[in-house]
Here is the input.
Amino acid sequence: MATIYHITTQAEWEAASRTGAYEAPSLKDEGFIHCSQAEQIAGVLERYFKGKTNLVKLVIDTDKLTSRFIYEWSPSTADTFPHIYGPINTDAVTSVEQVQNA
Here is the structure.
């Protein structure tokens, strides 16, 4: 089992919990949901979520995903990130952690 992570808002996660699937805006816009490995989370928070509140980190068990996920190179950060090509089924989320963001 690989564990990957996705940052979202508490409200978006609560809405997904009611429907059984989470879809980030990037799924419609780019065709996939951006995720991170543990060591990438701080950088993602700094680049994309600075100053935002009510954030949560979804802890995702990739073995339970019903959508395909792959690791892909990001030239903007010169790193490889996990991307999920479809909704995240909520039963693949093993825990939801509050994020303290500066």
